[in-house]
């Protein structure tokens, strides 16, 4: 082999390596907010840094799936569980947008939509999703494109109608390509004074194990689903540092969809039959003193 051909081969290898590294993507997402005491830090018995401070320190822009009722004026959260830190949910949302974070739809009422449809009909479900979207648009100036239903549960007819309205629904369904499925962090099982079912040995390790399982089948792009919880904020520095050390780059959900959604391959689709079906299964929860409740 000539020197010139060898140099060309080395250049191609370097480009391939660079492309591979740049394709290792994480879309970090958080549900159930805005919760000002989580986003900007608690002043209560156990004060700590806010989630926004942690993300900013690590140079990470995340996507927040917010609940519409929280975006009403003078609302600062659920009084049963959440601390008033002098910042309303609406103010918190405006700060997030100003700082370059994305807001997407987690419905207005945050109820389980299949049960809601049985009780109140499909039009109520569609209205609740669109009402949440309108609340977000009033903050951002633009219509949200992505919907994560509470518990990832939504009736098929409502799903189809919302897709016709050009919503893209986030899912853990094995019917979708692996890279387009959420990784359910199970962080809501770690909340409260007496958590039960939290991943072992730790929440961060549990998420990393799910990522490693997908990597074994050639999937290096992941949407991580967390919640606005103080216990989740506490593990973020370690998790972000570890993922960066493994070559991952953090992007917003819209950027993730632009980069990954356009590259969905049949090879990724086929891994749905390989990766164990229980990797992302939703586990039922009840509300905790940290205000977690359902995703």
Question: What is the helix fraction of residues, given as a range?
Answer: 40-55%
SSE-based structural type = alpha/beta
Q: What count of helical segments does DSSP give?
A: 11
Mean pLDDT: 86
CATH homolog superfamily: Glycoside hydrolase/deacetylase
Please report which band the strand proportion falls in: under 5%, 5-15%, 15-25%, 25-35%, 35-45% or over 45%.
Answer: 5-15%
Please summarize the sheet with the most strands: 6 strands, parallel
- Could you name the CATH topology? TIM Barrel
Specify the overall morphology: globular
Question: What is the CATH-assigned architecture?
Answer: Alpha-Beta Barrel
Task: Tally the beta strands.
Answer: 8
The end-to-end span amounts to 58 Å
Q: What is the top-level CATH class?
A: Alpha Beta
Uncertain runs with pLDDT below 50, 5 residues or more? 7-21, 265-295
Question: How big is the Rg?
Answer: 20 Å
Give the domain tally.
1
Order of helices and strands: HEHHEHEHHEHEEHEHEHH
What does this 3D model show about the protein?
By secondary structure, the protein is α/β, with parallel strands linked by helices. The protein has a single domain, classed as Glycoside hydrolase/deacetylase (TIM Barrel). Helix content is 40%, strand content 12%. The chain starts with a helix and ends in a 25-residue tail after the last helix.
Spell out the key features of this protein.
single chain; 295 residues; alpha/beta; TIM Barrel; six-stranded parallel β-sheet; two-stranded parallel ribbon; 11 helices; 8 strands; 12% strand; disordered C terminus
């Amino acid at each position: 082999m000539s020197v010139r051909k060898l140099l060309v081969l080395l250049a191609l290898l370097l480009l391939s390596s660079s492309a591979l590294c740049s394709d290792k993507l994480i879309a970090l997402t958080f549900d159930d907010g805005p919760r000002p005491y989580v986003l900007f830090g608690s002043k209560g018995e156990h004060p700590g840094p806010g989630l926004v401070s942690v993300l900013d320190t690590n140079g990470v822009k995340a996507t927040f799936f917010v609940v519409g009722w929280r975006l009403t004026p003078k609302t600062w959260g659920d009084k049963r569980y959440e601390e008033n830190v002098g910042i309303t949910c609406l103010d918190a949302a405006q700060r997030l947008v100003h700082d370059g974070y994305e807001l997407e739809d987690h419905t207005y009422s945050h109820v389980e939509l299949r049960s809601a449809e049985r009780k109140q009909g499909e039009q109520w479900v569609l209205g609740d999703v669109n009402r949440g979207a309108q609340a977000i648009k009033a903050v951002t100036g633009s219509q949200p494109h992505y919907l994560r239903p509470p518990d990832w549960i939504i009736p098929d007819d409502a799903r189809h109608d919302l897709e016709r309205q050009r919503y893209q629904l986030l899912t853990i369904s094995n019917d979708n390509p692996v890279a387009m499925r959420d990784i359910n962090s199970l962080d809501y099982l770690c909340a409260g004074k007496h958590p039960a079912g939290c991943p072992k040995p730790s929440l961060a390790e549990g998420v990393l194990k799910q990522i490693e399982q997908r990597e074994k089948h050639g999937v290096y792009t992941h949407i991580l689903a967390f919640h606005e919880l103080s216990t989740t904020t506490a593990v973020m520095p370690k998790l972000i540092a570890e993922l960066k050390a493994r070559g991952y780059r953090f992007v917003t959900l819209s950027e993730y969809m632009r980069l990954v959604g356009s590259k969905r391959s049949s090879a990724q689709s086929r891994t749905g039959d390989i990766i164990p079906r229980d990797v992302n299964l939703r586990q039922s929860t009840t509300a905790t003193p940290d205000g977690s409740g359902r995703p």
